[in-house]
Amino acid sequence: MTTFELVKRIRSLHRCGKRLLVAVAFGVTGVSAAAAAAAPASDVSGQAASPVLPGERDAAQWIERVRLGPCARAYTGTFVVLSSAGAMASSRIWHACDGAQQLERVEALSGTPRTVFRRNDEVRTFLPQSRVVRTDQREASGIFPRVPVVSGASISQFYGVRVLGQERVAGHIADVVWFKPHDSLRFGYRLWSERDTGLVVKLQTLGGDGRVLEQAAFSELDLNASVRAEELSRMMDATAGFKVVAPAVVNTTALAEGWILRQPAAGFVAVSCHRRSVSPAENTPSVLQCLYSDGLASVSLFFESFDSQRHAPEPQVSSMGATQLLAQRVPPDTWVTLVGEVPLQTLRLFAGQLERAR
């Protein structure tokens, strides 16, 4: 498998989790998200506090609300993703929670037949034509990845938030919220958060000129569906008759792998870093992936050994809706591929700040 194919597969998984956003939960752990979403706010005296009105929430409060939304209720729906280039993908989604455990099934209705199951951060992709099941671990699942708390930094430093009113999406009333970036290093977002649950039912990624680069939305949504978590779990574990492929993944850090990012783009912090095998066969090369995020936008850097037979001598650039890709050689012997839903200049900034630590 070439690096391009690997990045394409990881980007596909990223889009399934991030762009097929609404059905994919936000990784609430330790407590029941359904209980958290349903329980009234309270002050230190234990008395119920007045609910926060949509126009009074700041950026962090909106993000927390939509993180909790997927476990407020079990649901099913049909989800459609459209890019500015005219590409379209649709999926059927089943989602349920059992305490802190989230499960979902995403069945592709377009493109190559496939069904993706997720149980918290465990992902299994069933490919019926080849009778293969690919297993993987995915951190920071959902629309926007969770990022470490950074002293003196917050989403509000880089995005302004404005409530634009309410609209109906797939038959449900939703608050329309605009996250407007304060600089040109990130795209803007306009999201529709279902009024009662907080579930995001529609999301638009906006370019600097306000143009919609990509839109993802439910065309049909049932928030009272009888989806059982144990049934989804049973289906996810039904791998008999399939070849199970599980690439090795090892957690690490960029510094431990000999890399320094002298100055990340403003607001972006390291979320995770791991080595991933290119194929399940032994003695095959691996790729280092490091993920950075500002709490809304994210950028992945993939490192591998440079190979003149597979890699071009000049930088390679491509775009798919809101997702940009930059691949280039970092002297003397490394090929780096940067993927993110950010402007190309942000990827160039990341690439320009890379430095060998040893």
Number of domains: 2
- Rounded mean pLDDT is 83
Binned, the helix content reads 10-25%
SSE order in H/E notation? HHHEEEEEEHEEEEEHEEEEEEEEEHE
The percentage of residues in β strands lies in 35-45%
Structural class: alpha+beta
CATH superfamily of the largest domain: Lipoprotein localisation LolA/LolB/LppX
CATH topology of the largest domain: outer membrane lipoprotein receptor (LolB), chain A
Put simply, the count of helices is 6
Return the CATH class of the largest domain.
Answer: Mainly Beta
Supply the CATH architecture of the largest domain.
Clam
Radius of gyration: 20 Å
Largest sheet: 12 strands, mixed
Total number of strands: 21
List the SSEs and their pairings.
Layout: H1 3-19, H2 33-38, H3 59-68, E1 75-83, E2 88-98, E3 101-108, E4 115-119, E5 122-127, E6 132-137, H4 155-158, E7 159-169, E8 172-181, E9 188-194, E10 200-206, E11 212-222, H5 229-236, E12 243-245, E13 249-251, E14 259-261, E15 269-277, E16 286-293, E17 298-305, E18 316-320, E19 323-330, E20 334-340, H6 344-352, E21 354-356
Parallel strand pairs: 6-12
Antiparallel strand pairs: 1-2, 1-11, 2-3, 3-4, 4-5, 5-6, 7-8, 8-9, 9-10, 10-11, 13-15, 14-21, 15-16, 16-17, 17-20, 18-19, 19-20
Describe it.
There is one protein chain. The protein has 358 residues and is of the alpha+beta class. The protein folds into two domains: 3-41 and 48-236, outer membrane lipoprotein receptor (LolB), chain A; 248-356, Phosphorylase Kinase, domain 1 (2-Layer Sandwich), CATH 3.30.200. The chain has helices at 3-19, 33-38, 59-68, 155-158, 229-236, 344-352, and strands spanning 75-83, 88-98, 101-108, 115-119, 122-127, 132-137, 159-169, 172-181, 188-194, 200-206, 212-222, 243-245, 249-251, 259-261, 269-277, 286-293, 298-305, 316-320, 323-330, 334-340, 354-356. Strands 7-8-9-10-11-1-2-3-4-5-6-12 form a twelve-stranded mixed β-sheet. Strands 13-15-16-17-20-19-18 form a seven-stranded antiparallel β-sheet, sandwiched between helices. A two-stranded antiparallel ribbon has the order 14-21. β8 (172-181) and β9 (188-194) form a beta hairpin. The chain is globular and about 55 Å long. The two termini are 28 Å apart.
